[in-house]
């Protein structure tokens, strides 16, 4: 019974309340309908409180059902203009309609209390001119000398504020700021404690411009913002505080917090985001910053913390920006390649010097406690820094220790293959970055390579048991304690390269390597790959690997090299020399023998010349001086100079000569037949011509009783002019043990032999007791045979009478 009675009473009370609400609402609606002008004037009066300007509306219409049980009206053609609108022509607010929700009871008692405002299809333009005047001055408080009313009666306290389809522009010409938003929706729910106000704001907007400095571009360009913010205004601080909440920027959740100092027009924004792509975050920044950051790449998502701070002074234009990133097991692109398995804590700021200017010249990117693999070589860098983004300078201390085999397949081409060996490096680097490519580097430190097995494929050079210490001193490079083994050849190496670090990137063709080499034993044939063209190797992959490989290959091929070589014993096929002392230069496609001297065949040989590398074969030029060498051994060592008519088997004695010849040599080191041109001036001493076919034939033809198979010559001077397959013999007087004769003409390795010989029949043995002058006078007395050696039909040589003798 009791429950039934209580229910009846409750229903009666609720019914009465509903009736009262409806009656009150009807009374308010009736009042608005009968008093539109008065209500509009009252609303505008309420809205114009504490404004140094005026808000106007063309008309008002009741929209009774929008805010039931409250009453609402729609203000049409609303304009809000400051007192100086006539000068700058920017409406602070221009709205097609504004919905205003009113408190019914306050309406009835004649004191309109606005509980909700919805601004629809509007444009808000907050304008500051170049002198600092702003149309927001309309909101400045009236003079303090006025009698204060209670906060509740004088302040405009709106419980709900909604923006729908509103364009919001904040244009500050004095400080070059431009914030432009297309607001799809903002819903604010406000409360007004004595300390100020608190609100919950739900927003959905598009950012057209968020430029702290219009000369440098916009942050958040063309990005969407969506989320809910908790806000608090403190009267004591005269600041709005936005508590950290999740805000979707460009579709990714960011935790945003901020403090806005209204008195100083200053703000500080805190940003936190996890699991986001570096590129996506960089694109949220202004172009002057993002263009620098995007020179780096981070492939996998990272965690970021950041602050954007503006002190309101406008001194630097840009706000202070501090960003920290956390990278773990990632792939990072840097100007010189890629870092894999990369871990570091990174930071960016546009004011690296405390109290300094804010801008590119004082900006800094830092990588702290970096570990990574660079071309499979493990690196460790305590701090790597890129300072001054207007003219970037990179610095860092790099350490690494790894097996050289880690570098295989790392350079983007097959130029190198490493089988054994270790590398240990510690380098301090400082370099300018031109368009984020390293230039003008300064490097200090060393690289130690031990027990290396290296194949340089373009030249087919296989170096084993290799070790060296590479020292960097600022721009210069030196190699000490270098040891290489190429086949059976051993080389001890030291070198210096001035300005190497700078020229490596900017002008590799200007690199000059001063190389000193010594060897107990050198097999020259093992160095023949230098004579041939480089092998072509297509890159396995593109990108930075290919760029680095190309740079390194260009340096190896384009750099110039001066070589000072001393060798105890040098061997090339049949050629063996001792005490080799050589000054050699490598320039582009040429090998230049500046000075070479060797002990060979019992005498001394010195030469200068060059070999120029060409596609089919190589051209060479040689100026040589030969001093008292065994002619037999000399011809044997040089494979009879590409001919088989006069060979080492035909010769005895000692040769001194001046040789000036040119010709061609194959990529395998063979002198090409019939390619030699030049001049040979020679002297034979204590010589013999043994089993020389033309001489033997002359003996059979005219001197059957003389031994022309072993013709001894005490001394012979001669000059030979070589023209391909023809040797032009300048007139010579040959005095031998078997006969004396004069000879001149052309001896051909192929067709074209035409050698004239004038041979006196008198036997030189009969003149042995004559004086030198008497021998000279008696030499051509008696019968003289005038013969000619010419080609026969079978490709050999035949002797016939020379009817046209002088």
TrEMBL record:
Q: What is this protein called?
A: AsmA domain-containing protein
| AsmA domain location | 3-223
Pfam families, alphabetically? AsmA
What is the native source organism of this protein?
Pedobacter zeae
**PANTHER family, per database record:** DUF748 DOMAIN-CONTAINING PROTEIN
On the tree of life, the source organism's domain of life is: Bacteria
């Amino acid at each position: 019974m009791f429950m039934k009675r209580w229910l009846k009473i409750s229903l009666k009370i609720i019914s009465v309340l509903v009736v009262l609400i409806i009656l009150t609402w009807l009374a308010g609606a009736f009042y608005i309908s009968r008093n539109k002008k008065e209500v509009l004037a009252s609303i505008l009066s309420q809205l114009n409180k504490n404004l140094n300007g005026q808000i106007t509306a063309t008309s008002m219409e009741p929209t009774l059902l929008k805010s039931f049980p409250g009453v609402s009206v729609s203000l049409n053609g609303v304009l809000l203009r400051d007192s100086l609108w006539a000068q700058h022509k920017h409406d602070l607010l221009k709205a097609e309609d504004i919905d205003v929700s009113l408190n019914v009871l306050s309406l009835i008692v004649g004191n309109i209390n606005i509980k909700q405002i919805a601004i629809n299809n509007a444009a808000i333009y907050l304008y500051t001119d170049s002198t600092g005047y702003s149309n927001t001055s309309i909101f400045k408080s009236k003079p303090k000398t006025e009698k204060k009313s209670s906060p509740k009666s004088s302040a405009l306290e709106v419980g709900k504020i909604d923006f729908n389809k509103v364009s919001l522009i904040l244009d500050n010409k004095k400080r070059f700021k431009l914030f432009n938003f297309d607001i799809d929706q903002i819903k604010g729910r406000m409360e007004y404690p004595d300390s100020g106000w608190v609100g919950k704001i739900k927003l959905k907007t598009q950012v057209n411009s968020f430029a702290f400095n219009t000369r440098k571009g916009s942050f958040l360009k063309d990005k969407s913002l969506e989320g809910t913010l908790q806000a608090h205004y403190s009267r004591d601080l005269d600041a709005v505080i936005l508590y950290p909440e999740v805000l979707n920027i460009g579709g990714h959740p960011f935790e945003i917090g901020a403090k806005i100092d209204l008195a100083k027009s200053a703000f500080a924004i805190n940003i936190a985001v996890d699991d986001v792509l570096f590129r996506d975050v960089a694109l949220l920044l202004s172009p002057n910053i993002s263009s620098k950051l995007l020179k780096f790449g981070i492939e996998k998502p990272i965690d970021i913390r950041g602050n954007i701070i503006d002190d309101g002074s406008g001194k630097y234009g840009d706000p202070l920006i501090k960003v920290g990133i956390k990278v773990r097991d990632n792939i990072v692109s840097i100007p010189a390649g890629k870092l894999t398995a990369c871990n570091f804590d990174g930071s960016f700021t546009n004011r690296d010097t405390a109290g300094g200017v804010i801008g590119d010249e004082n900006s800094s990117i830092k990588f702290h406690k970096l570990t990574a693999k660079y071309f499979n070589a493990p690196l460790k860098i305590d701090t790597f820094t890129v300072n001054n983004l207007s003219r970037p300078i990179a610095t860092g201390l790099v350490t690494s220790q790894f097996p050289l085999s880690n570098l295989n397949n790392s350079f983007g081409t097959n130029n190198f293959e490493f089988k054994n060996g270790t590398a240990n490096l510690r380098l301090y680097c400082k370099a300018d970055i031109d368009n984020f490519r390293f230039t003008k580097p300064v490097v200090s430190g060393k690289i130690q390579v031990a027990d290396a097995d290296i194949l340089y494929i373009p030249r087919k050079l296989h170096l084993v048991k290799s070790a060296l210490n590479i020292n960097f001193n600022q721009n210069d490079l030196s190699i000490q304690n270098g040891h290489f083994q190429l086949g059976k050849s051993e080389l001890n190496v030291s070198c210096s390269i001035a300005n190497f670090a700078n020229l490596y990137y900017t002008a590799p063709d200007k690199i000059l390597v001063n190389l000193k080499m010594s060897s107990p034993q050198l097999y020259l044939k093992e160095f023949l790959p230098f004579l041939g063209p480089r092998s072509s190797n297509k890159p396995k992959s593109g990108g930075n690997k290919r760029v680095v490989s190309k740079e390194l290959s260009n340096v190896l091929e384009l750099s110039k090299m001066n070589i000072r070589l001393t060798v105890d014993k040098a061997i090339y096929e049949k050629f063996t020399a001792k005490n080799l002392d050589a000054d050699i230069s490598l320039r582009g496609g040429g090998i230049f023998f500046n000075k070479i001297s060797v002990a060979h065949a019992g005498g001394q040989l010195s030469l200068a010349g060059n070999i120029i590398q060409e596609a089919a074969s190589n051209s060479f030029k040689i100026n040589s001086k030969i001093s008292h060498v065994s002619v037999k051994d000399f011809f044997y060592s040089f494979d009879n100079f590409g001919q088989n008519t006069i060979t080492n088997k035909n010769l005895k004695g000692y040769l001194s000569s001046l040789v000036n010849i040119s010709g061609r040599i194959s990529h395998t080191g063979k002198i090409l037949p019939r390619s030699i041109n030049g001049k040979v001036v020679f002297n034979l001493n204590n010589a013999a011509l043994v089993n020389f076919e033309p001489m033997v034939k002359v003996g059979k033809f005219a001197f059957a009783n003389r031994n022309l198979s072993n013709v001894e010559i005490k001394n012979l001077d001669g000059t030979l002019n070589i023209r391909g397959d023809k040797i032009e013999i300048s007139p010579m007087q040959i005095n031998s043990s078997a006969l004396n004769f004069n000879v001149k003409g052309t001896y051909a390795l192929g067709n074209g032999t035409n050698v004239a010989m004038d041979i006196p029949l008198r036997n030189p043995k009969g003149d042995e007791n004559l004086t030198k002058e008497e021998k000279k006078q008696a030499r051509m007395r008696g019968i003289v045979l005038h013969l000619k050696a010419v080609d026969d039909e079978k490709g050999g040589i035949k002797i016939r009478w020379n009817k046209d003798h002088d």
